[in-house]
Amino acid sequence: MGRIILTGDRPTGKLHLGHYVGSLRNRVLLQNEGDYDRMFVFIADVQALTDNADNPEKVRQNIIEVALDYLSCGLDPEKVTLFIQSQIPELHEMTQFFSNLVTVQRLQRNPTVKSEMILRGFHNMETQDDNQRGLPVGFFTYPISQAADICFCKATTVPVGEDQEPMIEQCREIVRTFNGTYKCDVLVEPSILLPSNLACRRLPGTDGKAKMSKSLGNCIYLSEDPKEMERKVKGMFTDPGHLRVEDPGKVEGNTVFTYLDAFCEDSDFPKYWPDYQNLQEVKDHYMRGGLGDMKCKKFLINVLHDRLEPIRARRHEYEQDIPEVYNILRKGSEAAREVAAQTLHEMKDAMKINYFDDASLIAEQAAKYRQ
Questions:
Q1: What is the per-residue pLDDT across 288-335, written as a single tens digit (0 to 9) for each?
Q2: What is the pTM of this model?
Q3: Fewer CB atoms inside 10 A, N or C side of the chain?
Q4: How far is CA 214 from CA 169, 184, 201, 220, 262, in A?
Q5: What is the arrangement of strands in the sheet containing 38-43, beginning at the earlier edge strand?
């Protein structure tokens, strides 16, 4: 069994800096290092529909946005299998089989599900009344669907942000339960791959809130217009106690410094801020007082322009041939479906529901009824 990567994103809007530092940047590095035998990256439209079922057009329109972001960040369809979740029907069949191995109580304990329910305005099943937004079954069970996404290609590694750790653990439980119940080793327990930079594991929103989220309106998008990106950085949350330049400031919990931790490198200073050699010198100055927020923000703007300009340029090139982008997704989906079909076949063999392929079962039943 080789080393296989599986990861993906929901198509509910363009991808933002949180996606980039949390997973996308690392995916490109992993792709180029070539240490894995195969890499699958998918657009999770089925998962997106669990809380957008009444607005499928939103999902449909954003398929191309996510695909463009993938390609513009450097994912290479010659090295990575890019596919759309809904185009692999075997995944839905696997989800059904897995759902028989997971209890309602276990899903209710999943902290990621709990936090996502709150974020999207869904209420606990026990307290729900007619005036509250009900919890769709598909949304409640999406950890099971996610396990199918991971297991179809027997992924050994899933590079995601730390908020997804409970989901990966639930997938491992499902794998162990399946293999144990059916006395086989068909499925593989995946491991999580977190960004090595702690600031990248959960990039806050520009408003300082714990998570960058499209629904909260606190994102900077990868394809953001340069002037709009500058506007957002200038309005970014800093240290509310740093009222005057001469005041000592705090870098912990200061969104500007969290972004600098995630994006800047020592090589940025000779180009954009030669007064300092590295970020620690900037932090020290800020903490003892005498350094204004706007100077820090202007440096961050330059760093982000440096990182995003090549991405914007590649995106513009791909935008000139949208049919080819869809063709890339079609070919990737076909390749992913071949893999999924093989895994599903092995699962059915283990579950003893491969009736038409089981010659011994047919012979046994024939002999039984000849008597």
A1: 999 999 999 999 999 999 999 999 999 999 999 999 999 999 999 999
A2: 0.90
A3: C
A4: 26, 42, 17, 9, 19
A5: 81-84, 38-43, 4-9, 157-159, 191-193
For domain 224-317, which CATH number applies: 1.20.1270.10, 1.10.240.10, 3.40.50.1100, 3.40.190.10?
1.10.240.10
Structural contact between residues 355 and 361, judged by C-beta atoms closer than 8 angstroms: yes
User: What Å distances lie between residue 54 and 57, 77, 246, 269, CA to CA?
Assistant: 9, 32, 53, 49
Mean pLDDT of the chain: 92
CB 88 within 8 A of CB 341: no
In this prediction, residue 164 has a pLDDT band, given cuts at 50, 70 and 90, of confident
The torsion region of residue 208 among left (phi > 0), alpha (psi -120 to 50) and beta comes to: left
Q: Which helix (H) or strand (E) holds 131?
A: none
What are the structure tokens assigned to 124, written together? 């606990």
Dist. CA 44–CA 56, nearest whole Å: 13
How many residues appear in the chain? 371
Nearest to 94 by CA among 173, 40, 174: 174
Location of structure tokens 């990861």? 7
Query: Residue 131's pLDDT is what?
Result: 47
pLDDT in tens, 209-249: 767 877 778 899 999 999 999 999 999 999 999 989 999 99
Nearest to 26 by CA among 69, 74, 62, 63: 74
Interatomic CA distance for residues 36 and 371, integer angstroms: 55
Pairing of strands 38-43, 81-84: parallel
The encoded tokens of residue 140 equal: 């409640």
Q: Where are the domains of the chain?
A: 4-203+322-362, 224-317
Superfamily of segment(s) 4-203+322-362: HUPs (3.40.50.620)
DSSP assignment of 207-237 equals TS-SS--GGGT---BTT--HHHHHHHHHT--
Tokens of 24: 């996308």
